[in-house]
Design goal:
With about 325 residues, the chain is of the alpha/beta class. It folds into two domains: about 120 residues, Alpha-Beta Plaits, CATH 3.30.70; about 190 residues, Vaccinia Virus protein VP39 (Rossmann fold). Helix content is about 25%, strand content about 30%. It contains nine helices and 14 strands. The strands form three sheets. The protein has a seven-stranded mixed β-sheet, sandwiched between helices. The N and C termini lie far apart (about 60 Å).
Length: about 325
């Protein structure tokens, strides 16, 4: 079967938004080629990185590659994607060069290509993300292993925003807590919260593909008794307040429902937000504080930000 590969050269800031547009357009897989990967210093703890070929990466920014089946409507779909990405500037998202190229590939070329970028990664004091197709032996007795198969849902657990969210959850989730995970993606944050001792996790995502992927990963990690995944937008499926709410989504979206988040976090509870590009940090902080939250900690990794905020007791 023939597939069409779309390659969009964009900025780090726009990656999540562009990826979402591609999935909504029916993309059946995404590969991200980040120019920063060549400059990262890594500890070869698991033997997962042997060599990176500079020819496989852009000189600047990020290539987001997506795969669409070759149909008679392909030209219209590509044009819709082009317009949707161009429209991101209206949300103050820098899309950079925004160069879109198209080529034809065979199914076997893309179906497993993305897996070469995804290997076991220790991302915090306790958490290690392990893809389902890799063998891995824990290196410590208290290590928490999250097995993950992202499938077509973005969210492999190794993006800086997800890493910071898991690190934040490791700090704030206590035994018996109730947790809400807004925009769960592959379900990695919900799984992590359950492993840390949360008694119940309400996960939701607007993308039905992500919902199905999250449910599969929840079952894979044997936490289905604690995590329930719903199809819903932001907090619209949430009926009860929670001790901890986590939202790893775009800064622009976070700022649209800080009042709702404040009302759903229990007094004294915590709100963890990420998906925030550095340039939007102060805007998000201001929005959270305007809703009544107190900023407790700001985490930064590369040019990404995560914020831990608390709802006052009174």
């Amino acid at each position: 079967m023939k597939w069409t590969e779309l390659s969009i050269l964009t900025t780090h800031e726009a990656v999540d938004a562009v990826t979402n547009i591609l999935h909504e357009a029916g993309a059946s897989g995404v590969v991200i080629e980040d120019s920063k990967e060549l400059d990262k210093e890594r500890v070869d703890r698991f033997g997962e990185i042997y060599a990176l070929n500079p020819a496989d990466f852009p000189k600047k920014g990020v290539n987001v590659k997506a795969y669409l089946s070759a149909t008679s409507f392909l030209a219209e779909t590509v044009e819709e994607i082009r317009l949707a990405i161009a429209n991101l500037v209206n949300f103050d998202i820098n899309i950079g060069d925004n160069v879109l190229s198209v080529c034809e590939v065979n199914e076997e070329d893309w179906a497993t290509a993305w897996k070469q970028y995804y290997h076991p990664v220790k991302i915090s004091e306790r958490f290690t993300i392990v893809p389902t197709w890799e063998d891995y032996t824990p290196v410590s007795t208290d290590e928490l292993i999250i097995e993950l198969d992202p499938g077509m849902a973005f969210g492999t657990g190794t993006h800086p925003t997800t890493v910071m969210c898991l690190q934040a959850l490791e700090k704030v989730v206590e035994q018996g807590n109730t947790v809400i995970d807004v925009g769960t993606g592959s379900g990695v944050l919900s799984i992590g919260a359950a492993m840390l001792g949360a008694k119940s996790v309400h996960a939701l995502d607007l993308d039905e593909v992500a919902v199905n992927s999250a449910r599969e990963n929840v079952a894979l990690n044997k936490v289905a008794d604690k995590v329930e995944v719903f199809h819903g937008n932001l907090l619209d499926t949430v009926k009860e307040p929670a001790d901890v709410v986590v939202a790893n989504i775009l800064a622009e979206i976070i700022m649209t429902f800080t009042d709702d988040a404040f009302s759903i976090v229990k007094p004294g509870g915590l709100y963890v937000t990420s998906g925030i590009i550095g340039a939007k940090k102060e805007d998000v902080k201001t929005s959270l504080e305007a809703s009544g939250f107190i900023i407790e900690e700001v985490l930064m990794m590369e040019d990404w930000v995560a914020i831990i905020a608390r709802r006052p007791l009174a």
